[in-house]
Amino acid sequence: MSGPEHARVAAAAGLRSAGSEERATERRGKPSPQGDLSRRAERGSEHGRVAAAAGPRRAGSEERVTERRGKPSPQGDLSRRAQRGNEHGIVVVGNGMAGSRLVTEIRTRDPKVPLTVFGAEARQPYNRVLLSNVLAGATKADHIGLVDDAWYGTHDVDVRRGVEVTRIDRAAKVVYASDGTATPYDTLVIATGSTAFVPPIPVVAADGSPRGSVADRPPYGVIAFRTLDDCRDILEAAHGAWNAVVIGGGLLGIEAARGLVGRGLSVTVLHLAGHLMDRQLDPEAGKVLARTLSRLGIRARLEARTAALRTDNGVSGACSSGVGPAADRVTGAELADGEVLPADVVVLACGVRSEVGLARAAGLAIDRGILVDETLTSVTDPSIRAIGECSQYGDTVYGLVAPAWEQAAVLADLLTGTDTGARYTGSRQVTRLKAASVELAAMGETHHDPFDEDVEILQFADAARGTYKKVIIRGGRLIGAILLGETSTAGTLTQLYDRAAPLPSDRLSLLFQSVGGPAVSDSPVRMPDAATVCHCNNVSKGKIRACWQQGARTVDAVAVQTRAGTGCGSCRDALEGIVNWLDEQESVDA
């Protein structure tokens, strides 16, 4: 990329005022990475190929953002514009976890602004985080829905389920859809999420003849694990099967493996890296996790590259998302060293890629996701916003539900004019493994330089019992942690990490709650009202108590009112404990 192109990118990204960065830091207690756009351009980033042409537009956009911070936002106050005769309103492309959450957040703040949402999937939006529970049989598929049909009608939302947006005309501010409609917009929000990455693994028939690749023509029984349809296909292929191979030992792969072994299959996980969940865990934790899974009947093959998938020469039938009425069926996974593992089912959990095809075709600036600023506005077009896994803020594409829902809340504030000063300054990521008999929480910087003298490490390992605990501290603040096998202090650590709060002098209490620790506890009695119970939805114990006092006396009723427990589900036990404790207190008082 030429020097002038970099200069234009830097100019487009660097016009954000110093005051904006200071306010972002004060608001969230952590630095905003958005300023890194200009630095990335200077380092030779590829972002500028698309964004360079948008420099003048972004300059004007940034000036408008700065001007309106102390007064109502003309971009956000869409309800007043609608009342003046502009009926275009907000169009949301994507009705998954991010898009559906944004729609409900907007309606909570403004019941009148014109609102249209397109969803490529024909079914109601559902909690993708709980798919592994469906695979394991712990949760029914119809129990993970997020927004039902009746809600859209009651709240005057035009929902287009099973309709895909095929083109964006930015000049006319119109989106064209697969049903032939053309829908104008004032603000377009792209929430298209991500798609499963399918590696081009060769497929070989029983007679040795090549049968293409998995990416082009997947055999029956080979399914990428990403959607509810994928979950159904895996269960269909697993019926009557004996052996399963999961390719990918990350978070999703481990959850899929646990679900399949719970269905009675013999499961092997193939992972390219030297230890499982290498993005979240250090090597020691990865070893403990492998031993824990082994006791559950899951074998882990590390540094294992899948050279090919072997099939028979064709069977009748195929998965609903398969390749037609007749297809090869997978029979084994061949490793690079020639070993062949028997496999009736192969689950691909090889990561995801942001779904940015629509945005790229519209000429928006793309890196790994749609580049957005702290108002979640495209750096190319001030009329277009992006949230969730298809968006990129700073250097980060967030792959967890909590950041997407944080973004939805900020954007709803902006688009409705509820809080024109709302800004998204990044999220602190906390990973929870949702697999039966495996307790795991990881957050922040879990990989560190062992020679860094500024880092303080607390560590405990008991591989025989499947327990591993590690806390990483810098400057008296928690910057990362791993809890595996015993996670009683996870709530305490999450709050200390999220708030960058000072740590107790008794460091041992961060690992073992029984020796006395900070005020936060799994016990509702000792848990302060300010303690966050549901991190996916930022619901405190105080909010749960207030909801209960207003008449929501069951766990399900509290979940409906506060959304606690509707994210990853890991806080469900704590929610139930608080509600039961409140019920007991009422009985005592009576």
Describe this protein's structure.
The chain is α/β, with parallel strands linked by helices and 590 residues long. It is built from 18 helices and 31 strands. The strands form 9 sheets. Strands 3-2-1-7-23 form a 5-stranded parallel β-sheet, with helices on one face. It has a 5-stranded mixed β-sheet with strand order 10-9-15-18-19, with no helix packed on it. Strand 13, helix 12 and strand 14 form a beta-alpha-beta unit.
Features:
590 residues, alpha/beta, five-stranded parallel sheet, five-stranded mixed sheet, 18 helices, 31% helix, 23% strand, globular, disordered N terminus
Quick overview:
The protein is of the alpha/beta class. The chain has 18 helices and 31 strands.
Secondary structure class reads alpha/beta
The number of helices is: 18
Largest sheet geometry = 5 strands, parallel
What is the distance, rounded to the nearest whole angstrom, between the alpha carbons of the first and last residues? 74 Å
Work out the radius of gyration: 25 Å
Number of strands: 31
Which stretches are low in confidence, meaning pLDDT under 50 for 5 or more residues running?
A: 1-77, 79-86, 315-326, 515-522
Q: What spatial form do the alpha-carbon principal axes imply?
A: globular
Query: Biggest sheet, strands in spatial order?
Result: 3-2-1-7-23
Average pLDDT figure: 81
Q: So what's the oligomer here?
A: single chain
Percentage of β-strand residues: 15-25%
Helix content: 25-40%
